[in-house]
Design goal:
- It is built from 17 helices and two strands.
- The protein is mainly alpha-helical.
- α9 packs antiparallel against α10 and α16 packs antiparallel against α17.
- It is globular and about 75 Å long.
- The protein starts with 16 loop residues before the first helix and ends in a 33-residue tail after the last helix.
Length: about 500
């Protein structure tokens, strides 16, 4: 069953006055004046709970095991008022699952309900990730929290890839969703660097004239984004430069194969870049980021309230993640199954579906966390989440789906069309300029949000491509017919 809760009044658990003095003790110094190599946490934290070995004092719950009442109460409270409001949507979770099996012909309702149901489940992943991060060293905790926030995106990408059938020899089941995945990769980046960062700047700017953030966060983040954009755009640039060429003896299938090879090699290289980024933050420059985040914590207006809040145990964090990820997988499968119907029958633009709708539901938990941090004057934490999530999408999640597709024999490439490529480059340039001076205000945030709205309008009105037109690397299902310049353009779905 469940383990017993630590008795606060019991001996050795509730801190006495003498014990609380130990919470402020300093490391003994060696002869050379430096602190001992190994850092030791205080025996008792701010709430008087005895600190478990290996757990950061800020994340100590004072309990062990699983306690259903505390688990539900703390999870319902969530990280902020916005996240708590989102939990009102939990009744949609069982309804969305039930309607999928009781009314399988209600495609629009299945899509809409599962889309809404993914919001509270993704929010639970974000909350459990934050609770788990509190128990770990700051830099590692932020990286882990960001990675867990990206699980929803990875799940959606994998479900989309699984449903993809790009074999022209199987016209009855032909369903090419690769362009949707490509658009979703770019849409996730745009949602972070424009929408989420914009709301962070705007929310923080409402409470103070301007906010400052450290160059260690902004410069490394913007530099990696430019690197990622360069890598992601190379396959598209290669295809565009050769697709209309008459001086090179290369047919459409040959060009497609070359673009696919470049995409796979590029994905492996970007994956290596992500590992270097993690190593840079975790090992060689750990102390810099740790100092920046600690300084940011001191500026948190609600820190005294956060420290007093009841916290999940380590076991409860893992349980919450298992529950949330299970529901996210179910909703992702049901959601993706209905995308074809919504696009084909209801006239939703392919580009709008991939570039706007899918990324928004992926990123809701990360966005709520980052905006709440900016509101509390923790702009370095907010940007660490925003830029970290963007870098993870560009250097890990995107390349991962290409590599997995490679293993599954699916032609998943990075051949973005010109519309998406231009949007990505301009968005990163805009974000980089706003990050350059190390300061933010509500005007910069509002401008980022307005740019994102312009992109959403353009993608909503962007026409769906037709079979046989030029512009992508996918060959048409019918053989022997070449479009202009030997290239083929497909609709996202059959």
């Amino acid at each position: 069953m469940f383990s017993k809760r630590k008795d606060k009044a019991g001996p050795g658990t509730q801190a006495t006055g003498q014990d609380l003095e130990l919470a402020n003790f300093h490391e003994p110094k060696e002869a050379d004046g430096h602190q001992n190599k190994h850092h030791h946490h205080p025996k008792f934290n701010h709430n008087g709970h005895k600190v478990t070995r290996g757990i950061h004092p800020d994340g100590e719950s004072g309990r062990k095991g699983i306690h259903p009442h505390h688990f539900l109460r703390i999870s319902a409270r969530s990280t902020s008022k916005l996240s708590m409001i989102v939990n009102v949507l939990w009744p949609f979770v069982p309804v969305a699952i039930a309607i999928r099996y009781t009314h399988p012909e209600a495609h629009v309702w299945i899509f809409a309900l599962n889309y809404i149901a993914m919001v509270p489940t993704a929010n639970l992943i974000g909350f459990a990730g934050q609770e788990l991060a509190r128990k770990l060293p700051k830099v590692f905790g932020v990286l882990l929290e960001t990675f867990l926030g990206g699980i929803v995106e990875i799940v959606l990408f994998m479900v989309l890839l699984r449903k993809n059938n790009d074999d022209p020899g199987d016209p009855d089941h032909y369903n090419n969703i690769v362009p949707v995945i490509r658009a979703a990769i770019l849409g996730s980046i745009l949602a972070n660097v424009l929408l989420c960062m914009g709301f962070c700047f705007f929310a923080g700017g409402l409470r103070r004239e301007e906010q400052e953030f450290d160059s260690a966060i902004s410069e490394v983040g913007s530099g990696l984004l430019l690197t990622a954009a360069f890598g992601l755009m190379i396959p598209a640039a290669f295809f565009t430069s050769l697709s209309g060429s008459t001086s090179i003896d290369l047919d459409a299938q040959g060009l497609t194969d070359k673009v696919l090879t470049i995409s796979r090699v590029t994905s492996v290289i970007l994956f290596v870049a992500f590992l270097l980024y993690v190593w840079f933050q975790m090992r060689t420059h750990h102390s810099i980021y740790d100092a920046v985040l600690e300084k940011d914590e001191a500026k948190d207006h609600d820190r005294h309230k956060d420290l007093k809040k009841a916290k999940l145990t380590l076991t409860e964090c893992i349980l919450a993640l298992v529950i949330a990820i299970t529901f996210v997988c179910l909703h992702a499968i049901f959601l993706v199954e209905e995308i074809e119907y919504v696009v084909e029958e209801k006239g939703v633009s392919d580009s709008f579906m991939g570039l706007i709708l899918v990324p928004l539901v992926e990123k809701v938990a990360e966005h709520l966390t980052a905006v709440d941090e900016a509101w509390d004057n923790q702009m370095n934490f907010a940007l660490a989440h925003v830029l970290g999530a963007t870098i993870q999408t560009a250097l890990f999640n995107g390349p991962l789906v290409v590599i997995v597709g490679w293993g599954l024999g699916k032609a998943m490439d990075l051949n973005f069309d010109i519309f998406n490529a231009v949007i990505l480059i301009l968005a990163i340039i805009v974000a980089g300029n706003f990050l350059r001076d190390g300061k933010s205000n509500y005007l910069e945030g509002a401008l980022c949000i307005l740019i994102y709205i312009i992109i959403a309008v353009a993608s909503f009105t962007y026409p769906n491509p037709h079979h046989g037109s030029a512009g992508t690397s996918e060959p048409a299902p019918s053989t022997g017919v070449e479009g202009e310049g030997g290239a083929h353009k497909l609709r996202f779905f059959r």
